[in-house]
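Q: What would this chain look like folded?
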Amino acid sequence: MPHPVDVHVGKQLRMRRVILGLSQETIGKAIGVTFQQVQKYERGINRMGASRLYEFAKYLTTPVSYFFEGLDIPQQTAGGTDESAALEHDKMASRETLEMMRAYYRINDPNVRSRVFELVKSLAEGKPVQ
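A: My prediction, written as structure tokens:
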């Protein structure tokens, strides 16, 4: 069973890779591993060493600390594990969410980007769009 930290780091790796529009094969070649190995890292099946994590961070132009952002290992409760944090992270790592984020950040005009942001917030809150 993968360790929750390895799973979290893998999800962060996948999220950053997809946001940048990179394939597993592309990033694997750049780091010197196969795309299958990248898949295993992203699922948390294989644990990354510090040097490998550093190489991913360097290639993805992000600090190493990014991979640990939002790390919240579910705590045991009387009824089992608290999975709310894990479910929220899964929503953020969905392909649809990542594609939406990538498209949003491709909008060059800050005013247009701001209006899109306000539109999405209004729709999510059930408010009429102005």
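The chain is about 60% helix and 5% strand.
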